[in-house]
Structure formats: structure tokens, C-alpha cells
Amino acid sequence: MEGGARREGAIPCTILSIDHRDMYYRVCSICEKTLPSPNLLCNFCSKNNNNASSKRLFRILMSIATDTKVVTVICFDRVARVLFGCSADEFFNFAKLHPFSGVTVNEILEGEMFTVTFSKSVSGNAQHTRLASAVPLSSVFRPVIQVLRECYGSQHGS
Ligand SMILES: [Zn+2]
Fold first, then answer.
1. What backbone phi and psi angles, to 5 degrees, belong to 141?
2. C-alpha span between 117 and 52 (Å, rounded)
3. Cβ(119)–Cβ(8) under 8 Å?
4. Three-state DSSP state, 16
5. If you classify domain 11-23+59-155 with CATH, what class do you get?
6. What is the full per-residue pLDDT of the chain (158 aa) written as tens digits?
7. Cα–Cα distance measured from residue 58 to residue 20, given in angstroms and rounded to the nearest whole number
8. 54 CA to centre of ligand 1 in angstroms
9. Alpha-carbon dihedral of residues 142, 147, 148, 153, nearest 10 degrees?
10. Where exactly are the structural domains of the chain?
11. Cα within 13 Å of Cα(89), Cβ side
């Protein structure tokens, strides 16, 4: 027996599905402020730094089942990286080469069990509960990108 320390407020849940059509948002690569459009650069940083560019962060809607209910939650970059094992840009570039990655992500994560904590919306107008943390329950859990690389890698014999 190990890892028995149960975190305050952590509850077990199962991932039912994720919305793989819309998993990213754009931020300034320097200050990480949300950018309104992929083509725009951060007003502030682009004036002060020639290297200002934009990058993607994860923002994923997923429905999960706890032992009492099914809820739709929003999962931001820090937690999503635990599930994906890579940055949003890395995943995006992989998915560009492998167009079915999004669908496959659903298949990989569907039914995976995690202990999660939620965070309350600070502003009070957030539409969805946020996932504050997610820890895989399975000791053999592998991040999405590892599984994807394996299944697409072998297919192409590389
Ligand atoms: Zn900026």
C-alpha cells in the first residue's frame, strides 16, 4: 500500500468525454495574457520585445462522472498537461500531422479514472467549474501524447 494520503476535497471521477474540437486558446508567449485573435500580438510585449509571439495553452471542456453526478468541467493548461504529457503547442503540431488525434484523445481518456479537485470560480460568472487538479488513479496511466506517438509511430514504421 502506498500513496494513501488522501488530499483534502479530492474525489474520484471517470472521464466520459472531452470536447476535442476546441482545446486551445492563444496567449502572449511572454506575459501569457489571453489574446483576442490568433493573428494579434500582445500590445504591451510587442512594443517592448521583438520576440513577442503567441502560443497555445490548453483549455478543454470535459464531462466527468463522480459517484453521484455527471458534470461538465473546464480544464486549463496546468491540469491538462498532466493528462496530455506535453504542451498545447506540441499537441497541436502533432495533431496537424495526425488529423485523427482529437478523436483518439477521446478514446484514450474515456473511462480513465482520476482523483480530482475543483476550484470555485473567483469572478462568480464562470460558466463551468474548473478542475484544479487531476491525479491518475491507475498506476499504469500514460499521458495522451505517449499513447498517440506509439500508435501513430508504429503505423508509419518510424
Ligand atoms: Zn504580453
1. -60, 135
2. 34
3. no
4. strand
5. mainly beta
6. 444 445 568 999 999 999 999 999 999 999 999 998 878 899 999 998 888 899 999 999 999 999 999 999 999 999 999 999 999 999 999 999 998 999 999 999 999 999 999 987 666 566 788 999 999 999 999 999 999 999 887 555 44
7. 11
8. 9
9. 140
10. 11-23+59-155
11. 9
Residue 8's pLDDT is 64
pLDDT of residue 153: 78
pLDDT score of 37: 83
Ligand 1 center to residue 81 CA distance, Å?
22
CA of 41 to the centre of ligand 1 (A): 8
Q: Separation of 67 CA from ligand 1 center, angstroms?
A: 42
Cβ-in-10-Å burial (0-12, 13-18, 19+) of 5 comes to exposed
| Beta partners for residue 28, in sequence order | 54
Dist. CA 34 → ligand 1 center (Å): 9
User: Residues with Cβ within 5 Å of ion ligand 1?
Assistant: 28, 30-31, 42, 45
